[in-house]
Amino acid sequence: MTRRPPRLARVLSCALAAGTLLTIAACSSGDGDRDGSRVSGVTASQVAGKRQTPSPSPTATLSEDGARAALITEADIEEDWTQVKQTEAEDWHDTLLIGTVDVSDFLTAKTDAADCQRLLDSLFGDDLLGRPSGVSALRGFTQGDSRLLYQVASYDRTDPQDSLKWMATLPEKCAQFTATQKGEQRTVQVVETSLPNVGDAREGLRVTVQGTTGGTQATLTLDVAAVRVGEDAITVTAGGLDGGEQDSVDQAVKLGTQRLKDVLAGKTPSSNPSEFD
């Protein structure tokens, strides 16, 4: 990947963070906690498969240690990303994602409004594919005013493929809609993005939210990806007020999928990401 010059800001702006985040460590990129795992349960509403690959999936059960080992590192996504502390990554919730979807935008299919609401809630709560039925682990990175959240989870008692199929419908159902929070309207757009041909199934989206934060007009852009490997899956969300991060998402998906496959095969993930470029 071509490295790009570092942005002027190497850490999150305190003023910006106060307007766009509910909770975040005080403008510190941190050293990074390498051993965190969790299951997310928060949603925004509480505050307000396709392209199958022919290769068979691994059948090993993902353990907590395996989920942590499958997480990507700074070397996997290159550029100028810096890993943050575990507690900071767990508390990332963009307030521009909070809002109640305006049902009047969906004159012919009101059920679509529920799918769009689910999208906002799941992005806010970091559970795009639903709550994992097995183990999960996450890792966060910052680069200027952008953030990248990477998660590995097991869905051994649910079906991540159903969630991938749901994601595939969103560019049509939720192409553009309005969400309202405390009288302020936000315009949300959803488009499909392409991902590297990895895993058993995959879906990519770009979600753009235009609204007001701290009295100032702002646009939040998130590139979102999910890849299924058997009954396990990885999800990546990256972007911010500076725009999307599709290149970094593609790199994370490509190398992260290989890390997960290695773990499920009983191997130690390579410390040399270029091996799979």
From TrEMBL:
Residues 52-62 have a biased composition (Polar residues). Residues 29-64 are annotated as: Disordered. Residues 1-25 form the signal peptide. PROSITE patterns: PROKAR_LIPOPROTEIN. Keywords: Lipoprotein, Signal. This is Lipoprotein.
